[in-house]
Amino acid sequence: MRVLVTGGAGFIGSHLTAALLDAGHAVTVLDDLSTGKRANLPGAEERLRLVVGDVADQAALEEALAGQDAFVHLAAVASVEASVRDPVGTHRTNLEASVRLFDLAARLGVKRALYASSAAVYGDNPALPLGEEAEKRPLTPYAADKLAGEHYLAHFHRAGHLDATAFRFFNVFGPRQDPASPYSGVISVFLDRARRGAPITLFGDGEQTRDFVYVQDVVRALVAALARPGQTPPELPVFNVGRGAEVSLLELLAAIERLPGVRTPLSVSSAPPRQGDIRRSVADVSRLRATGWEPRTGLEAGLAATLG
Ligand code: NAD
Ligand code: UD1
Fold it and tell me: What is the pTM (predicted TM-score) of this model?
């Protein structure tokens, strides 16, 4: 299969690209290298093509999408905090580009589509664990754009123009998640600082929870979905992707402190909670499990593999 992976030079995208190449597919990556890196991708590989460009740019989209059998749309500004600070800029990437991509794919006949949505769409819904039917309460521009992206995708799916599946990733972690920015995923930041003995900042009281899922478990869900025959309209299939385990940041810090190679005691200071930060989050993953998928990597093993 010829597959376009938008955001394929990023954290999740680079793992997905490697897995698709291993499975024998030909992969085109469209990435502007804003947070992704060329070095995340395998070097000399005939079946891999990198198009450096903006996913909101029509010409770049046309170049990358022509001749594909499927696309996996991962390109986005992944930081919730960045969307709070720059709602206009992040909206262009996180929603406008998605609508352009879906529309162009429909016109080019690239029907098979996978979309990276987020647990953020549930906001502070207290109905834990969160099933896919739980009420959506987006609290941030990031969450609003991800949810709107699902609605647009559902439109193209219902119309029969795309054969699409949406995935609501919970908090994904693993190697190559870039800790460089203050907006990076919490595990990448905490591990990087723990390794260097640098100070860690905890936003809020540390009792907020997340469902941390290892990147290879996410990748297996995506690769399997591409291999499955598509579903017919009307309803857009939507799957949570988590581990189904609720972990507080204080528990995360304790798990990091137990890892070999970490400088203990960790130096942790507190700062006020982030605006729009979700208090508790954990997935009901029974729908994805019913397809034969299950998470294989627990938190401790995943943290050790990430630390390297
Ligand atoms: P990432 O920042 O590593 O990957 C995003 C990639 O998209 C990067 O390579 C970046 O360079 C690229 N990109 C950003 N803007 C672009 C643009 N305008 N044009 C082209 N490329 C652009 O983040 P990630 O964690 O790998 O996230 C991948 C996807 O999964 C995103 O859609 C994110 O919202 C979603 N997601 C991630 C998590 C998580 O916990 N990491 C959870 C839920 C959803
Ligand atoms: C993350 C993802 C987002 C995804 C969502 C799904 C990133 C950057 N964000 O958002 O793409 O859609 O999960 O649930 O991958 N924190 C600290 N100190 C730090 C950094 C973070 O205390 O130095 C706290 C935050 O305030 C928050 C928690 O850690 O309470 C998680 O933050 P973060 O990793 O940014 O993730 P989410 O906002 O959950």
Answer: 0.98
